[in-house]
Design goal:
The complex is a heterodimer.
Chain A (H helix, E strand, L loop, with lengths): L2 H5 L16 E12 L2 E12 L3 E5 L6 H8 L7 E6 L2 E2 L5 H10 L1 E4 L11 H11 L4 H14 L15 H13 L5 E5 L7 H18 L2 E5 L3 H4 L4 E6 L2 E6 L1
Chain B lengths: L8 E2 H11 L8 H13 L3 E7 L6 E6 L1 H12 L11 H12 L2 H27 L5 H36 L9 E2 L6 E2 L5
Antiparallel strand pairs in B: 1-3, 2-3, 4-5
Helix pairs in contact in B: 1-2, 5-6
Classes of the chains: A alpha/beta, B mainly alpha.
Chain lengths: ~240, ~190
C-alpha cells in the first residue's frame, strides 16, 4: 500500500465502547500451568477490562489456549491467581467454577460443539434450561439470540442441516444466551472459510459491544485478531507483548 | 474503458464513478480524465455520441467502440506479473535489523512492526464492518488486509527463524527443541521444512 493511499484514509479512531478506560473485570497474576512435566504457562500476568475485545495470539503450542482455559476456570492453575470481579476463582473448587461458567462466562470453541440431535433453538436454550429457566421462556430467549446473530430462520434446524458458518453463529448465540460478562472464543473461525469467518466475527463483536460483554479471542490469525481492541502475544508460555 | 463498458458516460461521471469504485486509490484529476478520453478517441477506442447541455458547461458523452471493447478484453486477458516485493522497505529494514542487531533487538523491532501492522488492520476491519461501507470500499479494505496479513505472517516467521537460529548458535536446548541446522546454509529448519 502506497503512502498516498494511506494518506487518503482517516486515522483510526478509538471506539467509544472499546473498554480501554473501563475497569478490570478479569486478571491473571503469575499463572503457571503444566501438562505433566511439560510447562504450558510459565508465569502469565494480564488484565481484561470490562467491554474490551482482547485478542490472545501466538504460534501453535505457545500456551494461548491453556491461558484461556485457566481464565475461564476450566483448568485450575498450578500456581498464581486468576481473579474475576474480585473473586479469586483459582482458589475455588470445581463446583464453584462450574457454576460461574454457567452464569458469568460464555465459551465458544472452534467447532461449535452443538448437540446434533437438538434444533438450533434447543441448542441455544440449553444453558438456560440447565440454569433452571422454564422451557418456554428459554426457547423464547434462544429465538431472540438467534435473531441477533442473523440465523432466526434456522431455529427449527438441526446442526447437520447447517453450514459451518451457520453452525458457528448458532454456537455463538448459545455462548451469549446467558448474557455473560465474559465471552471466551477459542479459534472461533478456525474451521470456516474467509467469508463465513468474517460474518461470525462481525456479528460476535457487534453483539458483544451492544451487550457490554468482554471478549477473549484466542487466535493465530491476525485477521481475526484485528477485530480486537488490543492484542497480547503469548510465546513459549509467557506474554511477549501487550499492545492496543 | 472498463467503466464505459457498463454504459455511456461523460468525463465528470467517469471521474466520480472511478473514485467511488476504487476507494482508497488516488482520486482522478479532471484533466487526466479528459486527456485520457482524448487519447482513446484518437485510437478509435471510444467515440463521442452526444453533448449533454444541462445547467453547467456542455458535457460530451462517450461510448466504448467495438475496437475499444476488443482492446479492453485483450487487456483483461493478460495476467499481471506477480510482484516479488523483495525491495519492500519493510523486508529490507527487517533484514538489516537482523544483520546489525542481536536477537533481542531484532525481536523488539519485529514486535513493534507487528503492532503497527495490526493497528492498521484494526482500522481496515472497522472500516469494512461498518454497515454503511460500500462494496468497493470493502473490496479495497480486503485487499489491504490481505497484504498486511501476508507481511505479518512473514514477520512472525522471521521472528521464529531468529529465535531458532539464536538457540542453535548458543546451544539453548529449550529454544531449539523444534529446530535443526540446515547443513547447506547454517539456517535452522522448522519442522515444516524437514
Amino acid at each position: 500500500m502506497s503512502e498516498d493511499m494511506n494518506n487518503l484514509i482517516p486515522s483510526p479512531e478509538v471506539h467509544e465502547t472499546d473498554g480501554r478506560s473501563a475497569p478490570t473485570v478479569l486478571t491473571a497474576r503469575s499463572v503457571v500451568y503444566s501438562y505433566g512435566n511439560t510447562p504450558a504457562l510459565r508465569g502469565v500476568s494480564m488484565d481484561l477490562r470490562r467491554g474490551e475485545i482482547l485478542a490472545v495470539t501466538g504460534p501453535s503450542g505457545s500456551g494461548k489456549s491453556t491461558l484461556m482455559l485457566c481464565l475461564a476456570g476450566i483448568l485450575a492453575a498450578d500456581a498464581g491467581d486468576v481473579t474475576y470481579d474480585g473473586r479469586r476463582i483459582s482458589e475455588e473448587d470445581e463446583a464453584q467454577r462450574s457454576k460461574l461458567r454457567r452464569t458469568d462466562f460464555g465459551v465458544l470453541f472452534q467447532f461449535g460443539q452443538l448437540v446434533p440431535e437438538l434444533t438450533a433453538a434447543e441448542n441455544v436454550a440449553l444453558p438456560l434450561l440447565l440454569g433452571g429457566t422454564k422451557r418456554a421462556a428459554a426457547i423464547t430467549a434462544a429465538t431472540t439470540w438467534l435473531d441477533r446473530f442473523g440465523v432466526a430462520d434456522l431455529a427449527g434446524s438441526r446442526p447437520p442441516e447447517m453450514s459451518g458458518g451457520q453452525g458457528q453463529r448458532v454456537a455463538t448465540a448459545r455462548a451469549m444466551v446467558t448474557e455473560p460478562s465474559v465471552l471466551f472464543a477459542d479459534e472461533p473461525t478456525g474451521a470456516l472459510d474467509a467469508l463465513s469467518g468474517e460474518q461470525v466475527m462481525t456479528q460476535m463483536v457487534r453483539v458483544a459491544r451492544d451487550a457490554g460483554t468482554s471478549v477473549v479471542i484466542i487466535t493465530h490469525d491476525a485477521k481475526v485478531a484485528a477485530y480486537g481492541d488490543r492484542e497480547i502475544v503469548v510465546r513459549d508460555g509467557m506474554i511477549e507483548a501487550s499492545r492496543s | 474503458m472498463g467503466l464505459l463498458a457498463a454504459g455511456d458516460h461523460h468525463g465528470y461521471d467517469l471521474k466520480r464513478e472511478h473514485d467511488e469504485r476504487f476507494a482508497g486509490a488516488r482520486p482522478l484529476a479532471f484533466g487526466q480524465v479528459y486527456a485520457t478520453l482524448d487519447r482513446l478517441k484518437k485510437k478509435s477506442w471510444v467515440a463521442p455520441v452526444e453533448v449533454e447541455r444541462v445547467d453547467g458547461p456542455d458535457r460530451t458523452v462517450f461510448r466504448l467502440t467495438p475496437e475499444g471493447r476488443a482492446e479492453l478484453d485483450s487487456w483483461l486477458s493478460q495476467i499481471e506479473e506477480p510482484a516479488p516485493h523483495v525491495s519492500n522497505p519493510l523486508a529490507v529494514k527487517a533484514t538489516i535489523a537482523l544483520l546489525v542487531g542481536d536477537r533481542e533487538q531484532a525481536a523488539c523491532y519485529l514486535s513493534e512492526q507487528r503492532a503497527a501492522h495490526l493497528e492498521r488492520m484494526r482500522h481496515y476491519t472497522r472500516l469494512k464492518t461498518e454497515p454503511e461501507t460500500s462494496l468497493p470500499e470493502v473490496l479495497s479494505a480486503d485487499y489491504a488486509l490481505a497484504h498486511l496479513d501476508a507481511d505479518l505472517q512473514w514477520l512472525d516467521l522471521a521472528l521464529e527463524r531468529i529465535t531458532a537460529f539464536h538457540a542453535a548458535v548458543t546451544g539453548d536446548r529449550a529454544l531449539s527443541a523444534d529446530t535443526t541446522i540446515n547443513p547447506s546454509s547454517s539456517i535452522p529448519m522448522t519442522d515444516n521444512q524437514k
